[in-house]
């Protein structure tokens, strides 16, 4: 019976352990925290957006996204949904292909994984943070920070990245793999709020529907202004595309063309020429948004009347509403990020097995690898896919054939 160690009890780790145990192997999950699946609980705003029916290679980022395509041929969305259904998780597909548990509870997904691990006889050791993996004859020795040691035959590293460290993802797994010659790309927070050079503190807490663009990437949704810049679903989505582009353009009236908006503004000026421009957008845009736009275009003072607005100022306002630019000044910290951009280079692993090309018996899955997905269930799908493949192949690995 093969002894499989799964290092990390997150989404990828739980799936790896289930896949390995279903082969009949003896499996142990080593989790540094007090419980498994902690990060799953905060996904999808506590509802767990566990996959997306439209998941495709184009939804992923990394040095080699074809790595995802090869893995998807082994285990993908249909197989994931079938497995969760088998474990008792009824699902519901919502807008944009997002799949949630029908109960709308992330805890239900964690419980289903936990019950399946128990059913399969998987041993779960919490409070065991692996600090070293020592190569032994036909196997490895796992060493914890408190000095405990356990001998295993194969090891699946699913320790996650650096995003959301409060859930247990601290980046410790990178060092475990680097000692065997693996390399790590540059790491950065992704699916995270964006800081802007422009001061938008006066709009803190205000939400508005908008279409945001970053280079050729665009996303519509609810834009939230913060004291440091921008947040909201479309901002999180675009943060995955910050490689080279540094300017975000917001269209805060996407249903209308620039010429239509200009005509509206002219009509407003003609209808109420005595209205102070600080209230010019009332009924059209949030009052504070309108005032900040006026200030940024130097259309001042705000006490002057609408009748004093020049034609060029009306045109400038219409253009600003359709193309309001914000200069990216970084992102919020790892504490705010949902996922890590970058990771262990995928060229050093086999996408069909998730096995290391550098050291026999070592496998990896999930966020620790240089693959991250768009917002919308894509990262959890990668965790399920890579975890399942890694666990199954770690269990079927036989030293005697090497």
Primary descriptors:
10 helices; 23 strands; alpha+beta; 27% helix; 5-stranded parallel sheet; 402 residues; 6-stranded antiparallel beta barrel; elongated
Residue windows where pLDDT falls under 50 for at least 5 positions:
none
Q: What is the overall number of helices?
A: 10
The coarse silhouette is elongated
Question: What is the topology, as strand order, of the major beta sheet?
Answer: 13-16-15-14-17-18
Percent in helix: 25-40%
* Average pLDDT over all residues: 95
Cα end-to-end separation: 17 Å
Largest sheet: 6 strands, antiparallel, barrel
Structural class of the helix and strand makeup?
Answer: alpha+beta
What does the oligomeric state look like here? single chain
Beta-strand segment tally: 23
Q: Which band does the percent of strand residues land in?
A: 15-25%
Gyration radius (Cα, Å) is 25 Å
Write up this protein.
- This protein is of the alpha+beta class and 402 residues long.
- Helix content is 27%, strand content 24%.
- The chain is built from 10 helices and 23 strands.
- It has helices at residues 11-21, 66-72, 77-86, 106-119, 173-178, 233-238, 258-271, 287-296, 311-322, 378-396; strands at residues 3-7, 26-31, 51-52, 60-61, 91-93, 98-101, 123-126, 130-136, 139-144, 149-152, 154-157, 188-190, 194-196, 207-214, 217-225, 229-231, 247-251, 324-331, 339-341, 349-350, 355-356, 362-364, 372-373.
- A 6-stranded antiparallel beta barrel has the order 13-16-15-14-17-18. The chain has a 5-stranded parallel beta sheet with strand order 7-2-1-11-22.
- Helix 1 runs parallel beside helix 4 (106-119).
- The chain is elongated and about 85 Å long.
- The two termini are 17 Å apart.
- The relative contact order is 0.21.
């Amino acid at each position: 019976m093969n002894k499989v160690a799964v290092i990390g009890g997150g989404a990828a780790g739980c799936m790896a352990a289930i896949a390995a145990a279903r082969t009949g192997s003896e499996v142990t999950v080593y989790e540094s925290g007090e419980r498994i699946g902690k990060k799953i609980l905060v996904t999808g705003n506590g509802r767990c957006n566990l996959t997306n029916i439209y998941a495709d290679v184009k939804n992923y980022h990394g040095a080699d996204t074809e790595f995802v395509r090869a893995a998807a041929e082994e285990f993908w969305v249909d197989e994931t949904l079938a497995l969760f259904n088998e474990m008792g998780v009824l699902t519901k597909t919502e807008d944009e292909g997002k799949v949630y548990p029908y109960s709308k509870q992330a805890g239900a997904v964690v419980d289903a994984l936990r019950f399946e691990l128990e059913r399969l006889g998987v041993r779960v050791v919490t409070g065991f943070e692996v600090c070293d993996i020592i190569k032994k004859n036909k196997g490895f020795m796992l060493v914890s920070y408190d000095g405990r040691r356990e001998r295993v035959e194969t090891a699946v590293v699913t320790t996650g990245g650096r995003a959301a460290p409060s859930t247990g993802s601290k980046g410790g797994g990178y060092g475990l793999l680097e000692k065997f010659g693996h390399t790590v790309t540059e790491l950065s927070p992704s699916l995270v709020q964006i800081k802007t050079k422009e001061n938008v503190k006066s709009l803190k807490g205000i939400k508005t529907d908008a279409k945001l663009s970053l280079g050729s990437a665009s996303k519509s949704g609810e834009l939230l202004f913060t004291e440091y810049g921008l947040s909201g679903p479309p901002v999180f989505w675009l943060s995955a595309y910050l490689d080279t582009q540094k300017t975000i353009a917001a269209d805060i009236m996407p249903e209308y063309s620039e010429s239509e908006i200009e005509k509206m503004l002219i009509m407003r000026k003609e209808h109420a020429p005595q209205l102070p421009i600080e209230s010019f957008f009332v009924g059209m845009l949030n009052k504070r948004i309108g005032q900040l736009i006026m200030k940024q275009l130097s259309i001042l003072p705000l006490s002057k009347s609408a009748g004093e607005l020049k034609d060029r100022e009306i045109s400038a306002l219409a253009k600003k509403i359709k193309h309001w630019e914000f200069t990216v000044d970084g992102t919020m910290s790892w504490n705010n990020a949902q996922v890590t951009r970058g990771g262990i280079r995928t060229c050093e692993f086999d996408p069909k097995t998730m096995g290391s090309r550098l050291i026999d018996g070592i496998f990896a899955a999930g966020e620790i690898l240089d693959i991250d997905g768009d917002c919308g269930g894509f990262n959890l799908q990668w965790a399920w896919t890579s975890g399942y493949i890694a666990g199954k192949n770690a269990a079927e690995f036989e030293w005697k054939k090497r």
